[in-house]
Amino acid sequence: DAKTTQPPSMDCAEGRAANLPCNHSTISGNEYVYWYRQIHSQGPQYIIHGLKNNETNEMASLIITEDRKSSTLILPHATLRDTAVYYCISRINFGNEKLTFGTGTRLTIIP
Amino acid sequence: DTGVSQNPRHKITKRGQNVTFRCDPISEHNRLYWYRQTLGQGPEFLTYFQNEAQLEKSRLLSDRFSAERPKGSFSTLEIQRTEQGDSAMYLCASSQTGSNYGYTFGSGTRLTVV
To answer: What digits encode the pLDDT tens for the residues A53-104?
Structure first.
């Protein structure tokens, strides 16, 4: 699985959009980009994933660049409950089954 | 189904003692994973099962660690002769073959070895 790079920490004002970047310059054509988050003292929670196209669900949007070397997770209206560590992971589906986590981005939502 | 359940939530043990953790996955999920997480780090893969078969083990899983999933449902992770370095959060996750919607994690068991 390709290595991903994320900033160690970010702040965002409550009610604003939080944009979390991820670099995955060595991603291969069959690797998906997954995002998880981990709120303090809980297990990681799946947010969203994508291959090439931008994706949106009830939690977030995922924007993947055309060359697939980077992506951005967007939380459209951040709340205090979105304070967490966010992990960007690349993974081949239906192949190597394990997720390889980095150290993620610690997002703090400021009231 | 309330998700992945892990017991106990917290465990304090003396160095040298054996400990066992239990994970109950989502009932229709055939895959089960164990991860370990230390402070400030992301979760690290330990092992995974498809039904009752243990298909992959990380080199992090030393001889003192053993995991089982005897009937393809719940799983146990045992650590023998615990060491202070075993202190960590142990996370369990489950998924279903053919689903690419990621894993569902439990809340973890926090182990403290004193």
So the answer is: 899 999 999 999 999 999 999 999 999 999 999 999 988 766 556 788 988 9
What is the four-CA torsion angle of A103, A97, A63, A11, rounded to 10 degrees?
A: -20
d(CA A38, CA B7): 19
Residue B50 tokens read as: 């498809």
Task: Search chain B and give the residue with CA nearest A85.
Answer: B42
* pLDDT, tens digit (0-9, with 9 covering 90-100), for A12-23: 999 999 999 999
DSSP state of A17: P
Interstrand relation of A105-110 and B88-95 (parallel, antiparallel or unpaired):
unpaired
- B104 and chain A in contact, CB less than 8 A: yes
Contact B16, B69 (CB under 8 A): no
- Which of A37, A34, A41 minimizes the C-alpha distance to A78? A37
Strands B10-13 and A105-110: unpaired
Helix (H, G, I), strand (E, B) or coil at B14: coil
Contact B33 A103 (CB under 8 A): no
3-class DSSP state for residue A58? coil
Pairing of strands B10-13, B109-113: parallel
